[in-house]
Give the backbone structure.
Amino acid sequence: MPASSHLSEREIGQIIAFREAGLSLREIRSMINRSKDAVAHVLADPDNYGKRKRSGRPPKLTPRNKRAILNATNSGPTTDQQILAPLDLNVNIRTVQNVLHQSPNHRSQKLKKPALQNHHKEARLNFATKHISWSEPKTIMRRNFVGGSVMVWAGFSSSGKTSIAFLDGRQKASDYQRTLYDFILPVGSQLGGPQWKTFGSYKIERWNHKVLNLKI
């Protein structure tokens, strides 16, 4: 919903007069067809209503900077990069474009790419014909999961950390147990102390008989 406009001097005078006559906020609102909040703001501080400065980010360009940008186009057709380069302004290309678009005396036009010459077309055709059957070696990146992500596993504590394990494909219970066996046991006593070592030995013994068939 768009914000309403500020009250005029006439409306402010009417609100003050109606209030002095004993009318309520709701009655004043109906008389001038304004919101109740607007009426309340006027009555709270009628002398300073509408005089408060609005906060906001200061502009990056001064009027002098804007004139310099516009004057840089007087020598003839030029690009935005060519305008910005000699001015030493801490702004991006989009800011320069906004200044030019706001000026009624300047017009922007996209640069056209040069057309392909016959030797360009011939070179492209020769390249395509040569590589119809591509036999050169190439590297293909493979990801385990959709979305270009890689699953990793690691552990850490105040006493140390494990190495990073890169998990290949979907993980089953035996895969997770293998990861713990390979990456937790070598540093288990360092990370968790004697109690963890006892617990870890129990777990590995259980895996030894039921899952991993490992000899400890």
Strands lie at 152-153, 156-157, 160-161, 165-166. The mean pLDDT is 75.
